[in-house]
Amino acid sequence: QIRLLPRTPGEEPPGAEDSPAPRTALSARRFAVLLIFSLYSMVNAFQWIQYSIISNVFEGFYGVSSLHINWLSMVYMLAYVPLIFPATWLLDTKGLRLTALLGSGLNCLGAWVKCGSVQQHLFWVTMLGQALCSVAQVFILGLPSRIASVWFGPKEVSTACSTAVLGNQLGTAVGFLLPPVLVPNTVNNTDLLAYNISTMFYGTSAIATLLFILTIIGHASTVLLPPSVTESSRRGLCLEAVSQSQLQAAIISLEEAFKEKPRYPPSRAQAAIQDSPPTEYSYKNSIMNLFKNMPFVLLLITYGIMTGAFYSVSTLLNQMILTYYKGEEENAGRIGLTLVIAGMVGSILCGLWLDYTKTYKQTTLVVYILSFLGMVIFTFTLDLQHIIIVFVTGGVLGFFMTGYLPLGFEFAVEITYPESEGTSSGLLNAAAQIFGILFTLAQGKLTSDYDPWAGNIFLCAWMFVGIIFTALIKSDLRRHNINTGITNGDIKAVPVDSPTDEELKTVMMSKQSEPEI
User: Fold this and answer.
1) 297 and 217: one domain?
2) What is the CATH number of the domain that holds 65?
3) DSSP labels, 333-381
4) What are phi and psi of 420, to 5 degrees?
5) I need a labelling partner for 496 at 20 to 30 A (CA). Which of 103, 183, 315, 460 fits?
6) Bridge partner residues of 26 (DSSP)
7) Residue 516 and residue 49: Cα distance in Å, rounded?
């Protein structure tokens, strides 16, 4: 169950002979944790976009305006902003288990509430269900970097974060693809339309329920033998040395839920945090430290602009496409699918590139510039009356714009270490939701009053501002410094629910820029 990270004398940093390096190990269980999270994140993202991609259908069914349907998407953004602070506090103090169960459980509950809204006068019920799903999202979006840091080693942490983000993107892709197929535009036959909507809602609820059950089961599973068996075996002791009491204790531990972290930290950076006194941690001080960190504040703004633009384009894509291509609801969904699938490829490639090069700022800046160029090309080719061109330009835009999402998460963790990954990711997502609401309202107004070209130019202007701010970010790879053994500065602690039995050690760190690396 446990694979020790390879360690050779040549890997030891200078001066390591005087103090033993922290014990680190990789657990095979990390892949199950990542899979479970990705699946219920996928269903939550599907529920976010399932209305917007067929907005004209729901407008006709409920007899509401396009703004009402847009709010079914924007409620996700609106709910996130006030709830992010209690959610990140809960993650930091109570850990992954409770946060994961809340996210999956609320997502399931919201899906079932929407099943009771398939009548034309019950728009408020579908809004209530969507609001519950939006609250679930608060307990989901901040977890990718936390799961990656706590469970994965330094050579795979960026890829793990990208994979966790991938689940959310896959849900958006499915949300673009399936609703136009499951709920075709049959406004003239209200009974058939209600049946199709009901089929989509009940199918979503069944899958969400299954994933909630898997979350409970998966988060309650653990190995029968205690981790000390592995350690004893490593030292040459035989399996028979395990006492009956140890086996009983291990079986009883099955009743305990998902471990907040593996037995041994996967990297020196996590070892440094876990070995620090937890009494030093203050959530309020952590928030203040983040806002005093100017590189992080700049990243907060640039991430909010980029991701907010993505949210706005996703929400209004159906309206943009139907303006120039009448009756192309299904192709609008396929274009959205192309955008997100290309972005999923971009996310994985960016994660692999970061794990290989650790060039966080350079990669982030290049991807930002290419996203801006993709948006410009998409804007000026949208009305050429050749929908195949929109497929191509949408794919290019999605590859870079969606591929940027895990870059922002990982760059934030690097420049804010040792502050909690959940807190930094939560603030990034809060910025994205704020910009997403503002951009969606502004672009939607420009699109309805003028045309999609005006709304897209508005986004291009803001993305250009984001490029300038990204260039101003100072790169200080603190987590990478710890993992490579560079030491010279105090590490503060974050809450540790299962403190190690080793003596608390003071681990030091220093600043090292990307050019020096």
Assistant:
1) no
2) 1.20.1250.20
3) HHHHHHHHHHHHHHHHHHHHHHHHH--HHHHHHHHHHHHHHHHHHHHHH
4) -60, 135
5) 103
6) 3
7) 43
CA proximity to 184, closest of 173, 195, 174: 195
| 305 & 398 share domain | yes
What does the block give as tokens for 380?
A: 């000026």
pLDDT digits (tens, 9 = 90+) for 62-74: 988 888 888 898 8
Among residues 145, 160, 187, the alpha carbon closest in space to that of 411 is found at: 145
pLDDT in tens, 377-420: 999 998 888 889 999 999 999 898 888 887 887 788 787 876 77
Residue type, 413: V
Boundaries of domain holding 155: 26-221
Between residues 159 and 381, which one has the greater pLDDT?
381
Q: How many CB atoms lie within 10 A of CB 7?
A: 11
Instruction: Report yes or no on 14 lying in a domain.
Output: no
Do 332 and 450 have their domain in common?
A: yes
Alpha carbon separation from 189 to 54, 61, 79, 181, 244 (Å, rounded): 16, 10, 34, 16, 68
**What would the DSSP string read from start to end of 380-403?**
HHTTSS-HHHHHHHHHHHHHHHHH
Report how far apart, in Å, the C-alpha atoms of 309 and of each of 83, 145, 175, 247, 367 are. Answer: 22, 22, 18, 54, 14
* Total tally of structural domains belonging to the chain: 2
Is 231 part of any domain? no
- CB-CB contact of 100 with 260 (8 Å): no
